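Q: Two folds, back to back.
A: First:
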Amino acid sequence: MALTLIAIQPDGTIDSAVGLSEHAAPVITGTLDNYKARGSFAPWLCYLTFDDGTNVGTCGFVAPPDGDVVEIAYYTFPEHEGHGYARQAAKALVGIAQGAKPDVVITAHTLPQDGPSCQVLRNCGFTHTGSVEHPQDGPIWVWTLNGS
């Protein structure tokens, strides 16, 4: 699996990549809105995930680190679920974060129920560390990478 940066051009648009999934457009629009609202700078950005030239999902950092904490997110498009892409994306983001800021605490959020995303995080070394009330999503579980 390969990551391709969702990059903003000087005119405020995002580069488009060849072979994008039909699911990518709303993610790219949301990414642009997020960049505008929270700021963006390398490497704390969002990426399209590809396998053998096929766009299988997205992943990225929700925002640049807030102090020593950064949150990751990942999404596998429905037709590509169950092939390990979410785990690969999460591990890639962990590698990027630790390479850029070795002391960063890496977190992730899930719905407050055990599901595939929880298993992805467990497989990547995360532990469920609490719950919070998210302004848009309601109650969510917080996961923290062990050793970060």
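A: Second:
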Amino acid sequence: MSKLRAILTIVAALVLASFAAVLAGRYVGNKTRQNTHQVAVAKSTIELGTPLSADLVTMIDWPRESTPDGTFSTLTPLLAEPTTKAPRVVRTTILKGEPILELRLAPIGSLGGLAAVIAPGNRAITVRVNDVVGVGGFALPGSYVDVLVNTTQTSGSNTVLDESISKIVLNHILVLAAAEEISRDDSKPKVVNAVTLEVTPEQAERIDLARSVGTLSLVLRNPMDVGQSGSLGVDKRMLLGNGPWDRGKVAVPMPDSSEVTLPPPMPVAKAKPTRPAAERIEVIRGTTRGTQSVER
């Protein structure tokens, strides 16, 4: 009888423990659901210029406290925008698991492709390059470059001087595409024949003029370095060290020997003549004897 009672006690304890575990699980689940909500994230990496589709986006629970601004709680405004009924277009690359934010999307009504990723007010211009001009294939989409022009200087009367000059004409220019590809996740060099740059209208005019008067080259730079070069350009005399600038130092020209004016000689002080020492002689006057000085 006592053994049966012990077994019943153990069974009751197990039942109560299971019931308590279920209640605790439900409580924790409800509490967790209260602190999270549905957020649209990238199911896989989405390249810039890509229209969103159902196979690229999924909904997951996201903590409310750490939810960034501009997220989407449903898929409808992403896959079929209520006004245009067209999917939204990604303007920057979104990695797998990243929340899809409004600021990462092109304006409503934008079509897919390169035009959707151009910032408002900017333009896209294509520059023909080769393996050298294109920085050995490292001018990839998403990188930043400076634009150099190599041309021939002209005088004020538009007469061509026999002197070449190389100068940086644009700084910190974003590469939108290399050839026809706009993928930014490729870190390997790729030799292409054209690079598309994002510029302002004034910068587009400078590039168009620069490639008509000389040859262009690209200089790869650190994307975090946003400073201006400040260079005045280099010509052949400066390159060979014969010009007014040599390694950043001013070269002072030496004057011609015929034009050198020597300073007048310093006056020489004349030495004063020294007086000869006086000679003493003995003078005897009667019984008196003495000496007297006599000058020569």
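Q: And?
A: The radius of gyration is 45 Å.
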